[in-house]
Amino acid sequence: MRTEVYAPAGQTTEEVEAAWAEEIQQRLADVDAGVVMPVPWPEARRRILAAANGRREAR
Per residue in 28-47, pLDDT tens? Predict the structure, then answer.
């Protein structure tokens, strides 16, 4: 499995990894605080496939 992160122009891989680590921590904090609710994979998959097919699914 490949694990390297491809950095946009002007950023190092380390900068990108640090930014993702910060993003992940913020997302986890949002879940823990009840700011967002996780969506079970079957529901997320259904929504993703619906969006890919140009439909907007009711939540």
Answer: 999 999 999 999 999 999 99
Cα gap 47→49, rounded to integer Å: 6
Structure token digits, residue 49: 């496939």
Nearest to 33 by CA among 21, 22, 25, 43: 25
List, in order, residues 6 or more apart from 50 with CB less than 8 Å away.
Answer: 56, 57
Place of tokens 């967002």: 36
Whole-prediction pTM: 0.61
The position carrying tokens 């891989």 is 13
d(CA 5, CA 17): 7
pLDDT in tens, 6-27: 677 788 888 889 999 999 999 9
